Amino acid sequence: MAVTKEQVLAALSKVPAPDGTLLPATRTLSDIVVADGKVFFSMTVDAAAVKSWEPVRKTAEDAVRAIPGVQSALVALTAERAAGAAARGPQPSHVAQNRAAAAGPAHTHAHPADNVQPGIPGVDAVIAVASGKGGVGKSTTAVNLALGLRDLGLKVGMLDADIYGPSLPKLLAIKEKPQTIGGTRLKPIDRYGLSVMSIGFLIDEETPMIWRGPMVMSAITQMLREVEWGKLDVMVVDMPPGTGDAQLTMAQQVPLKGAVIVSTPQDLALIDARRGVAMFKRVNVPVLGIVENMSYFLCPSCGTRSDIFGYGGARKEAERQGVPFLGEVPLHMTIREKSDCGMPVVATEPDGVHAKIYRDIAVKVLEQIRGGAAAGRAAPKIVIEA
Ligand SMILES: Nc1ncnc2c1ncn2[C@@H]1O[C@H](COP(=O)(O)OP(=O)(O)OP(=O)(O)O)[C@@H](O)[C@H]1O
Ligand SMILES: [Mg+2]
Q1: pTM to 2 decimals?
Q2: How far does residue 171's CA lie from ligand 1's centre (Å)?
Q3: pLDDT at 164
Q4: Cβ(298) to ligand 1 under 6 A?
């Protein structure tokens, strides 16, 4: 028989909080997620009271484990700062690292009342690279755009928010694991001058990804806030496809400076791109523009151009949506080969035509980040007004 939430709540109703209130009555519990005999939930408590809650967390975990049919239980304590406490966001105190992150890390709540979108210390601007549809080249574009921004003299970080199918380990040929600082915070991995973090560094490729909404949120929140990003001018976030939990979490948890939407030119992709634009607009994240990827095909042997997916759809869509058009990237064997073996074109063929295309896109993105001011190599430092 499958374990139910009601059984979990019944077990928790025997566990008292530090003040004697039984857990279900404390209003600290997150959604309880039950999946295949695994139970996850978090308890959000006052940061000052974390110590006294730790034994409660442990007792709650044991009580849930004792329910027949429960194979594992993970209860996370999430410490919440008092409203008005500056700079940092809510801090999960029970840091689930490495494989534990895949098993179900702490859940940080985003209560509407304290949805103040605190910044990431040291990071000036966070931009998301997204699309409604999968496989249109978001990750490839994100990596080369990040490198293009690097070439403009910026200090750039990359966060792989695609926790279902992380791509950055492959696209940047990163096999090593990140080091921890002080046992709790992770150090991003440096590749081609970019500071990179991906859930793919922490889990095996074969690990099944049974993420549920709250887990998605907390994994991303942890990667944003429990990583020593250092000083960054721009953080480029490679988003998973779609307009679901991960996108909304980003929009709620991080003050996104804006989103770059990637689309291929065909109608079906454009419908999804439109959804992506609409979603970011709905959560008040400016759309920095649309990139048309796999825009046209230039035959490497005869030079003939073929508009495989039809051409110019994304430009027209950008006009229709009133958002900037950032550029066209051709469908080219070199981009695919280089990308898939961890040698992105902007880093490894900096003088090639493709690198120039991505750098031009980076300039346009930078212009948008700076509020439309002319951007150039001469003065690349971004000044973001508070
Ligand atoms: N302009 C391009 N020319 C040739 N191949 C490309 C181009 N852009 C992307 N690709 C290839 O297309 C495939 C999908 O690209 P990518 O992984 O970047 O897409 P994605 O939108 O991030 O996918 P997902 O939705 O799965 O995250 C990869 O093999 C990549 O190398
Ligand atoms: Mg991707």
Answers
A1: 0.70
A2: 10
A3: 78
A4: no
